[in-house]
Design a protein that fits this description.
- The chain is α+β, with helices and mostly antiparallel strands.
- Helix content is 50%, strand content 8%.
- It has two domains: 6-158, no CATH class; 170-330, no CATH class.
- The strands form three sheets. A four-stranded mixed sheet has the order 3-2-1-4.
Length: 363
Amino acid sequence: MSITNYPNLRNKNGTIYDKATGKQYANPAQLATDLGISPDKINWGAIANETITSAPPVSYTPSAASSPAPQMTFYKDGKIATVNASQAQYYLAAGYSTTPPAPASTTTSYTPAPVAPKFDTGDKVVEELLATGDENSEAFAKMWSEGIKPYFDMLVQQGKIINPQVDISEEQAAQFLSQAQKEISPYYDTQMKLAREGLLRIAGYTSDEIAQQEAQLERGYGRELRGMGETAAESGMALSGGRQLSEQELAQSTQETIDQNRKLAEYNMGSQARQFAGEWGGEALPAYSYGAAPKVQAGVSQFGRSLDTKPFYNISDSVYQGLVGSKQYEQKTAENLRQSELIGAERTRLENDALKKARTLSL
């Protein structure tokens, strides 16, 4: 309910007063309370000026004690107000500016530049008021006690909360992280399984290919060995040293071929393993073993084989232990981002709930 109205208000040299009651207003908050509105809704142009001026004689220079208070002119939305400099902070807080609007030929409207808030209060009006003075000065202290605090009190009386404190506990943050992991991890788990299966399939195919190559080598080695024996028998040199030397050379070259094929296959599989570990980490890298290389004996048509196995690709603990792959890092980033979204949504919900409840203002 309003106590005063614009027709009764007068601006006498920068001091706003009610001509009907004689009440003077020291700041916008008091005036706004009697008008039943907020300070930023005050229509300053609707308050009539009652400025008393007198032209002193030309030959007279007034002393500092008798000089009128300095005047300042403010502009807002086509309105002009000339007031005492002591009232400047209140007009600035209400959105007025000391910069006159541009001529009509260059612009059709004038909007003063927004005042950068010095304080983060969550209330635009309060931030603009706080931005008008030095918080360590007496004028600022007066503005607080006579302007800002009454405005806070008015908000509290309306059932609003000043800067509701909303805290997210570590337990809640951990719960949100767990929820984010449940949402994100299924996708990356599936992709990792597909990559792992692909690596194992390549390893299986390569090991089968090596076994086929070695079987072909064994058959070819046997044919050549029998041919040497037949040739030596026809020439009467079945047990000669030359035949034995030829058999040794054939066995050696065949063994080198076997070893070289395996070395190349293990190198290629090592490259595949490093690529997998670089994406999914060292702990996810699957182990794969295959049979040891057969041994070729001179004069024996069949290769010697054992039940021993060996790793298809060597894994160095110093390299792969604790290695975080690019996909793992991507997954962790996605989980943290989702956690932040969940925390932000919960904080907004709590703040909205808090704003609906009244509480006592502590200053």
